[in-house]
Amino acid sequence: MLARDGHDVTLFERDATPLPADPDEAFHWERRGAPQVRHSHAFLARGRNLVRDRLPDVREALLRAGVTEVGWADMVPETITDRSPQPGDEDLVMLACRRTTFEWTLRKVALDAHGVDLRDGVGVTGLLMEGTHVIGVRTDRGDERADVIVDATGRPSRLITMLSDAGVDIPEQKSDTGIVYLSRFYRLRAEAPNAMPFNGADLGYMKYALFRGDNNTFSITLAHATDDDEMRDLRDAARFDAAIMLVETLRSWADSAVSEPISDLHYMGGLINRIRHFVTPTGQPLVTGLFAVGDSSVCTNPLYGRGCSLGLVHGALLADELRDDDDPCRAQVAFDDATKRELVPWYEASVAQDRVNAQVARGEQLSDVDEYVRSAVSDGFFYLARTDADVSRAWTRSFNLLTPPYAMLTDQTIMPRVIDAWEKRGERSPEPLPGPDRETFLQQVHS
Predict the structure, then answer these.
(1) If both were cysteines, with which of 73, 221, 244, 404 could 40 make a disulfide (CB 3.0 to 4.6 Å apart)?
(2) How many CB atoms are located within 10 Å of the residue 30 CB?
(3) pLDDT for residue 74
(4) Contact 383, 344 (CB under 8 A)
(5) Does the pLDDT of residue 325 top 80, yes or no?
(6) How many domains does the chain have?
(7) Half-sphere exposure of 165 (CA within 13 A, CB side)
(8) Are 287 and 168 spatial neighbours (Cβ–Cβ below 8 Å)?
(9) Which DSSP letter does residue 378 get?
(10) Is residue 31 assigned to a domain?
């Protein structure tokens, strides 16, 4: 987007990553700087719509690479019988795609069509400063000056350390998500066991998810609490395989007659929610000439699948700001305002959800408000979303970042139905768990 606006863009990539020939070769790309690329990814509707509207050639290249678009009617269970198209459904579309395929396509278009200068295998080691204004970077190949520096190095970003070394302290807030997760990828050998492109559930002691990818691939991810010692054995591939065979939804896909593994088991821990503040509460930039986008600025629990889409949104906001204002102070403040408006609410929602999940896992008493919201969502909203098309669409919009966090709980077109379902929760039989109880699960995995 910056190159299309006429900027001369140089991209420093620490990893030596020659462009692979195709998506399957890209799946084995050496990406030490992005350890999450071989985990499950959700490319939510907000990110897909941004690509559709602002990067149409990227969208076309993704579809040519085998990525599929998945609409609302493709994602809902069979219990929703009214699937007649409604205004707005054209925006309720996700991408079924491996992260490596998305990155490969994006880079290919950027280099081929827009002349981005990629310096492959060049690491940035520090910043060039004049006071609190950044004028360039130090690299392991020499110094480079520029009018604007963008840090897009994600969760591992060393930006705070680099700025501190230059005498600029940037405050940050962070909290542990309380989870670790494990992922493995597969390729279908036969027809998929069902049409659902995404599936998942919370068993209390473990969360699971299945994501369709491109070119007949899919992934399975299991997540559990960081301090759950009894679940640590899932890092062993044989026990991971045994675990997924205990959940019918996963077993039907991972059966050897249906699919075969195409990756090792990948583990990821140290997952945090984090926000960095580049402008003081009184509106004074702490640094200028430097912008952090995506996870290097605001990162949220990856379990919720928001990172890629919010990163795209953040990049578009930056491109817009640099197009509209070349004054470094005004641009920094305006970008900070846009970040607070578009990304920070999702950071706060992630922190709040993780806090509630941790309290429930520890058996602690929730506040009255937290208990009501949790119950209203699970016993009202989620229950009704399996049969009511309007409620399902509202949930899909929220999950896909198309409405602000919790906006669905104030939607007066559907909330009377949700509240009615919630008030009748005691009249329904308890929902069966979509997998074994914890004791049975542990016995079977360790047998």
Answers:
(1) 221
(2) 9
(3) 93
(4) no
(5) no
(6) 2
(7) 12
(8) yes
(9) I
(10) no
- Asked, for residue 342, whether it belongs to a domain, the answer is yes
Q: What residues make up the domain containing 300?
A: 123-175+271-349
On the question of pLDDT at 328 being above 90, the answer is: no
Six token digits for residue 349: 């929602």
CB count in 10 Å sphere of residue 135? 16
Number of other CB atoms surrounding residue 156 within 10 Å: 14
Let me know whether 309 and 334 are in one domain: yes
pLDDT value, residue 30 = 82
Query: Tens of pLDDT along 56-81?
Result: 999 999 999 999 999 999 999 889 99
**Helices and strands counted in the chain (H then E):** 16, 18
* The two structure tokens encoding residue 427: 């009249």
Q: Give residue 54's pLDDT.
A: 95
Q: How far is CA 21 from the centre of its chain?
A: 26
> Do residues 15 and 30 lie in contact, with contact meaning Cβ atoms separated by under 8 Å?
yes
Judge if 197 and 341 occupy the same domain.
no
Q: What is the rounded CA–CA span in Å between residue 45 and residue 248?
A: 28
Name the DSSP class of 202. E
Give residue 242's pLDDT: 95
Average pLDDT over residues 103-127: 90
Q: In the 8-state DSSP scheme, what is residue 18?
A: P
What is the predicted pLDDT for the residue at 20?
93
Q: Are residues 185 and 258 in the same domain?
A: yes
